[in-house]
Amino acid sequence: MDKKEISRRYFLEKASIGTASVMAVGAMPAFGFYSKKTDKPAIHGGQPVRTKGWPEWPIWNKDAEEDILSVLRSGNWYRFRGTKVEEFEKKYAELMGARRCLATASGTTALLVALHVLGIDAGDEVLVSPYTFIATYNVVFLSKALPVFVDTDQETFTMNPAKIEERITERTKAILPVHILGLPCDMDKINAIAKKHNLKVIEDACQAWLAEYQGKKCGTLGDLGCFSFQNSKHLPAGEGGAVIGNDDEIMDRCFSHHNCGRPYGSVKATSNYPVLGSNRRIQEFQAVILMSQMKRLKKDADTRLENAQYLTAKIKDIPGIFPYKLGEGATRSAYHLYPFRYKKEYFNNVPREKFLDSLRTEGIPCSGGYGPQNKDGLIEAALNSKSYKRLFSEDRLKKYREENHLPNNDQLCREAVLFQQNMLLGTKSDMDDIANAIVKVYENRDKLI
Ligand SMILES: Cc1ncc(COP(=O)(O)O)c(C=O)c1O
Q1: How many A from CA of 161 to the centre of ligand 1?
Q2: CB-based contacts of 254: which residues, under 8 Å, 6+ apart?
Q3: The domain containing residue 49 runs over which residues?
Q4: pLDDT (0 to 100) of residue 12
Q5: Atom of ligand 1 at shortest distance to CA of 232?
Q6: Which residue of 228, 370, 421 sits with most ligand 1 atoms within 8 Å of its CB, as the best mutation to test the pocket?
Q7: Ligand 1-lining residues (CB < 6 angstroms)
Q8: Which pLDDT belongs to residue 23?
Q9: Suppose 251 and one of 92, 94, 100, 104 were both cysteines; which one would form an S-S bond, judging by CB atoms 3.0 to 4.6 Å apart?
Q10: Which atom of ligand 1 is nearest to the CA of 230?
Q11: What separation in Å is there between the alpha carbon of 152 and the centre of ligand 1?
Q12: Domain with 74 in it: what CATH number?
C-alpha cells in the first residue's frame, strides 16, 4: 500500500464517523510514514516500534555546580541572608513581562498566597477548571471556599468560557482558570466575564512557562499568575513556585503574607506583624538551580513546540486520534504534556486502557491523564465537614451536588492520552516512532479486542 492510499483511506474513514460531510479528495493530507500491517503488535509478542529510551528529565547544567557549592559553603541558605532569590525574582519577572515576581516554596503555596491576598475567604466561591492537578482546588478548600467546577472544552482541554456565567452566585469571588498541559485558556472571554461580575482572576500557570495568549505570557493576563517549579516541570528546582503580577500594592501584600505577615513596601510597619501571614519562602539553593535551569528554558520550549507541531501533522488524520487544538487567542503552548483524544469507536472499540498498554509495549510511554476529580472523595468530605455546613446553607450544598456534573469533562477524562514533555525534547525521528506506533496499533485494532 502506498502512502497516498493510506492517507486517503484514513482521511475518508475519519470523515465518515461523526460528520456527514465528504471532503474533496484534493484536500487530503499526506502521511510521512508507511503502515506495516504485517507487524505483530508488541503486546502480542511482536517487535516493538521502539526499544530505545527517551530524554531524561530534569537535565542538570554542570556550570551551576560552583554556585550551589558557594551558597552551601556560605551558610546563607535563607533568602534574607543571600541575594539569589531576589536575583531570580527579577529575572523571572523580566522573562514573563511582569512588573513583579515573588518566589515561593511551591506552586501550591503560590496559589494559596494569591487567593489570600485577593481576598478569597471562608464562605466564598471560586470557579475552577476540573481538568487539572488536584492542587488547583485543594487550595480553594484550604481557603475554606467552595471550588465550583466549570465544564471543560474538550478540544482545547481548558475551561469553557461559555459555561462560566451559569455557575456564578452572589458568593462567587474569583475565577481560577488553568492553562493545563501548557495550553492557554481563552483569557479574553474569561477576563470579560470577570469584569462584568467584579471577580478576581488568578491564573494557574503551574504548567505553562512561556505559553502565550495573544503574544503575552500566560500568568500575566489575570490579577495574579502562579507557577510551579517542582521536579517534573520545565523550570525545575525540586520544589518551588512563583506568583507574578503588575500591581505593586498587591505584590507587596503577597510578599508580606509569604513572610509571616511582616511589613513590606506598602504593607507598613504599624506593628511587627501587621497582617496575617505564613512561611511560604523559597531557599537560596532553589534560586540557584532555577537560574541555571532558566538558561535552557527557551531553547527547550522551542524544541517542544517544533516537535509537537511535527507530531500533530503526522497523527491528526489517523482515524480516532484528535490532537488538542489551541483555543481562540492562544498563540503558543508550553506542552507540559502533549495531548490528544482517543475515540475508541474508530479503533474497533478497543478500550483506551488497552490502547495505552499497546502503545507502551511498542516503546511509547503514555498516560490517560486526569480523572474526573470533581467526583473525588475529598469533595464530599469537605461538603460534609463541620466548617462547610456552617459556611454554606443546606440548599447551597444540595444545589452544588446537583450541578457537579460535567459531561464534557467526564468524556475528556475517558478519552485523553498524554505524552510527557521530555519526549518532545527528542528528535523528529522520535516523533516518527510515536506516530508509527499509533498507526501500528490502529492497523492491528482488530487483534486487540
Ligand atoms: C496545574 C497545577 N496546579 C498546581 C500545581 C501545584 O504545584 P506544586 O506541586 O509545585 O505545589 C501543579 C503541580 O503539578 C499543577 O500541575
Answers
A1: 22
A2: 102, 113, 114, 117, 224, 243, 245
A3: 3-57+296-369+412-447
A4: 41
A5: 14
A6: 228
A7: 106-108, 132-133, 135-136, 178, 180, 204, 206-207, 228, 230, 241
A8: 33
A9: 100
A10: 10
A11: 19
A12: 3.40.640.10
CA of 208 relative to ligand 1 center, distance in Å = 11
449 Cα–ligand 1 center, Å: 36
Ligand 1 midpoint to CA 83 (Å): 26
Q: Say how many Å lie between the CA of residue 138 and the centre of ligand 1.
A: 10
Question: Do 289 and 354 fall into the same domain?
Answer: no
pLDDT tens, position by position, 234-268? 999 999 999 999 999 999 999 999 999 999 999 99
Measured in residues, the chain has a length of 449
Residues 142 and 161 both lie in one domain = yes
Total structural domains within the chain:
2
Please give the helix or strand (H or E) that residue 331 lies within, else none. Answer: strand 330-332
Among residues 369, 363, 354, 350, the alpha carbon closest in space to that of 435 is found at 363
Per-residue confidence band for 63, with pLDDT thresholds at 50, 70 and 90 = confident
Please check whether residue 176 is in contact with residue 140, taking contact to mean a CB–CB distance below 8 angstroms: yes
Please give the average per-residue pLDDT across 201-218, as a whole number. 98
Check residues 362 and 28 and name the one with the higher pLDDT: 362
Rounded CA separation 115/117 (Å): 6
Q: What is the CATH number of the domain that holds 49?
A: 3.90.1150.10
Whether 35 and 73 map to the same domain: the answer is no
Nearest to 222 by CA among 247, 181, 187: 187
Q: Which atom of ligand 1 is nearest to the CA of 233?
A: 14
Tell which atom from ligand 1 comes closest to the C-alpha of 180.
Answer: 1
Confidence of residue 38 (pLDDT cuts 50, 70, 90): low
Q: For 270-321, how does the pLDDT look when each residue is reduced to its tens digit (9 = 90+)?
A: 999 999 999 999 999 999 999 999 999 999 999 999 999 999 999 999 999 9
Got the DSSP string for 226-273?
A: EEE--TTSSS--SS-EEEEES-HHHHHHHHHHHBTT--BTTB--SSSS
Q: Which atom of ligand 1 is nearest to the CA of 132?
A: 1
User: Does 429 share its domain with 322?
Assistant: yes
pTM above 0.90, yes or no: yes
Tell me, yes or no, whether 398 lies in a domain: no
**Could you tell me if residue 105 is inside a domain?**
yes
Q: 207, 258, 280: which to mutate for ligand 1, most atoms within 8 A of CB?
A: 207
Q: Please report, rounded to a whole number, the percentage of residues in the chain having pLDDT higher than 70.
A: 92
> How high is the pLDDT of residue 36?
54
Return the residue matching grid coordinates 519577572. 93
Last residue of a domain, one of 243, 260, 293: 293
